[in-house]
Design brief:
By secondary structure, the protein is mainly β. It is built from no helices and 7 strands. The structure holds zinc ion. Zinc ion binds next to loops.
């Protein structure tokens, strides 16, 4: 993981702030054989409701390594909250 520290988020509905720890997320890995070897795809998803206004916040993580060890994509998508 490139981001070790908790993510600071602010609910886009009510503005309440909270930390999100990436280690709370469940990750799944899959690999595919391609011409230069294996491609590794790591995805994670975490959905919860704001403690204050109950608005749904979802966080998705996507990483792809191809060839193995070479990160092509590393992105985190947050829906329902803003990253601070
Ligand atoms: Zn909220």
């Amino acid at each position: 993981m490139s981001q070790e520290s908790p993510l600071k988020l602010e609910c886009s509905e009510c503005g309440s702030k909270f930390d999100f720890d990436l280690s709370d997320m469940d990750f799944s890995e899959e690999s595919h054989e391609r011409s230069m070897g294996a491609e590794l795809i790591v995805t994670g998803e975490y959905v919860y409701n704001c403690a204050k206004c109950n608005s749904q916040i979802s966080i998705e993580y996507h990483r792809s390594e191809y060839p193995l060890g070479c990160v092509n994509e590393d992105e985190l998508t947050v829906d329902g909250a803003n990253e601070l």
